[in-house]
Specification:
By secondary structure, the chain is mainly beta. Helices cover about 5% and strands about 45% of the residues. The protein contains 2 helices and 47 strands. The strands form 12 sheets. The protein has a 6-stranded antiparallel β-sheet with strand order 7-8-9-6-11-10.
Length: about 625
């Protein structure tokens, strides 16, 4: 009897192209909540996500044990105990002797959220009433009795402290800058929107009174040699573009289009004719155009109407709808928002702004808040869907139907030149990401790469999505946004329904180096952002349709809920599908980290026929050891 051995490393990802009769070793025909990590072999179950507002992460919860004696009145889980030197939240109580009724209770408290110190001999109080006396304080050990239940309760305590940004509806945009998350959300009632930032005590407002209903996108940039001038630049398609300084001061950009204006005319919102004098000259409207004038301090003060007359620095409108109180700080624009930027980028020391109707506008060189003598405007002939800087000082301008590349720097020696690169495949809105100077973007036809070639300034077009074409097609029916993980070489496409398609690249973009897995979140993602922090840690966050901001790829749960994950390998017939075989042993190679896990599996022995093996549960324990990471003689 001959015995043959087959080894199938699970590192090739989803395969929806080969079919069940042409299996590829290591490929999957189904997967949920597993991912491939660049530099690691095999599949890894994903980390989870946690609610975020700047407070301590639930997954970072610490558990301590407080010994006590002379217990007079029962201490129960959920109470906060205090001493003269500190306080803690009680997770659980264990009595070892005595009783509360007898006044001689002895035992331990599992606590979290410790502040200050809880020292031997100090009175343990609840609401300023002494309940017991401290006898010891120590950090809980992972092998303590009930550790798993107690640490879960500690994490739930921290989770309960975290709040949403005040308001209603979805998060309208998130941006990470210097470890702080900025989020945009409409206020209750939807009259305005507020820009929030995370702090160690939760969300605090940065700017109130913004026009509501936008979709915020951001850029961190510095147009000087002074690090103190680095700033956050934001657009949302409803307001003028904004600059947020390191001191959190917000400055609006200028009126860029001739249909925009700024007016200090004091007016009370009401129906009928209203005349505005603008601080800008050369304004141009058309009679009958519908415009909106709103207070820059509070957009709930507004008037909407049609233009009846105008001059170079004045405009009169007949107001048809209005709200709010008297104001003298009006911003005027088209009510259709076609003169409001909705995409933002930086290129050759210019701030780049994308507007509806295929308009691309630059700032003055080195002056992002000025649009004047050295600024330029371009028309690309189609709706712009993204702008990304690429290698060779080239700007990729992605549209609904194709890609254009902007060369030059606007100087006499290198004038701007917009070249059409492809007209066959455009990007979805927000679908382009830059990785190593190349661009990845998603269209209805697939996931594409624009990679630099040996010819300076030229780029080659590649479709890399063959292995996951069916899943991509399903996701694009409810597409939301994209993001990248630079740390792990991932390009992620998010759907409104919680579906995420993850592309991991193992080399230069191609069909052979592209590997896919899928994630399913039990919520609706509304926006996403990722960045590398100065510490070298990557921070990914997303907003939800219910107004939460979540930090992604952290912890082991979906904000406290278990992660349901599975994968199904391709049908591997050991080289001959017609021959019957007897399989004698199955070995699963698993690295569980520091904790044991349970794996449930079933063998498919006949292309999914009804005659299947039983389901098995396999306990995988931690194993192995690393030099200087364990005690000599105690490697497990």
């Amino acid at each position: 009897m001959s015995i043959k051995l087959d080894y199938q490393p699970l590192g090739m990802g989803l395969d929806e192209a080969s079919g069940v009769t042409n299996p590829q070793v290591g490929r999957l025909i189904g997967v949920q909540n597993f991912e491939l990590i660049l530099g690691d072999e095999g599949l890894r179950r994903i980390n989870g996500y946690e609610a975020f507002d700047g407070r301590s992460a639930p997954s970072d919860a610490e558990l301590s044990v407080v010994g006590f004696e002379l217990g007079l009145t029962a201490i129960v889980a959920g109470e906060t105990v205090t001493t003269v030197g500190g306080s803690a939240y009680v997770v659980s109580v264990t009595l070892s002797s005595g009783s509360w009724v007898g006044g001689d209770a002895v035992g331990t408290l599992a606590v979290t959220g410790v502040t200050g110190t809880l020292s031997d001999g100090e009175a343990l109080q609840v609401s300023a009433v002494t309940r017991a006396t401290v006898t010891s304080f120590s950090v809980a050990a992972i092998d303590d009795a009930n550790y798993a239940e107690n640490i879960a309760s500690a994490r739930n305590y921290y989770r309960g402290l975290i709040q949403t940004p005040t308001g209603e509806g979805a998060i309208l945009g998130v941006k990470v800058w210097r470890g702080v998350v900025y989020a945009l959300r409409n206020v209750v009632g939807g009259a305005t929107a507020t820009l929030w930032r995370s702090t160690s005590s939760g969300w605090t407002s940065v700017r109130t009174g913004l026009r509501p209903g936008g979709a915020m996108r951001g850029l961190v940039a510095n147009f000087t040699g002074n690090s103190a001038e680095q700033a956050l630049y934001l657009v949302d398609g409803r307001n003028r573009y904004m600059r947020v300084s390191q001191a959190h001061a917000v400055t609006f950009g200028p009126a860029v289009f001739p249909t925009e204006g700024t007016s200090a005319t004091s007016l009370t919102p009401g129906s009928g004719s209203k005349a505005f004098t603008t601080s800008e000259t050369g304004r141009v409207w058309a009679n009958g155009q519908e415009v909106v004038a709103y207070s820059s301090a509070n957009a709930a003060n507004y008037m909407v109407g049609t233009v009846t007359s105008w001059g170079g620095s004045s405009v009169t409108i007949t107001v048809t709808s209005f709200g709010g109180v008297t104001s003298a700080d009006w911003h005027i624009c088209l009510n259709a928002n076609s003169d409001r930027p909705f995409l933002i980028g930086e290129h050759r020391n210019y701030l780049m702004l994308a507007y509806p109707l295929g308009q691309l506008q630059t700032s003055d060189v080195g002056s992002p808040m000025v649009v004047g003598a050295t600024s330029d405007a371009f028309g690309v002939g189609d709706e712009i869907t993204d702008i990304r800087g690429m290698r060779g000082n080239v700007l990729g301008v992605f549209t609904a139907s194709g890609v254009s590349l902007l060369y030059g720097d606007g100087s006499d020696g290198a004038p701007w030149e917009m070249r059409k690169h492809t007209a066959s495949s455009g990007s979805r809105l927000g679908g382009a990401q830059e990785m190593g100077g190349d661009a990845l973007y998603v269209s209805a036809a697939g996931i594409h790469s624009l990679s630099g070639t040996q010819a300076f300034g030229d780029f080659a077009y590649t479709d890399v999505s063959l292995a996951a074409r069916r899943s991509l097609r399903d996701l694009l029916q409810d597409y939301r946004c994209t993001a990248i993980s630079r740390k792990d070489g991932q390009y992620r496409i998010y759907g409104n329904d919680g579906a995420v398609l993850v592309l991991t690249l193992y080399g230069a973009p191609s069909i052979k180096t592209a590997r896919f897995t899928k994630i399913r979140y039990p919520l609706e993602v509304s926006c996403v952002d990722s960045t590398m922090l100065e510490s070298g840690e990557e921070m990914m966050v997303f907003g939800t349709s219910e107004g939460w901001v979540m930090r992604e790829r952290i912890g082991t749960t979906f904000n406290g809920d278990e992660i349901e994950s599975f994968f199904r390998t391709s049908y591997w017939h050991s080289r001959a599908p017609q021959l019957r075989k007897r399989f004698r042993k199955l070995i699963i190679d698993v690295d569980t980290g520091q904790t044991a896990v349970s794996l449930m599996f079933r063998q498919d022995i006949d292309f999914g026929a009804l005659d299947q093996s039983d389901a098995y549960t396999y306990q995988a324990a931690p194993g192995g050891g690393y030099y200087d990471a364990a005690y000599w003689g105690e490697f497990f």
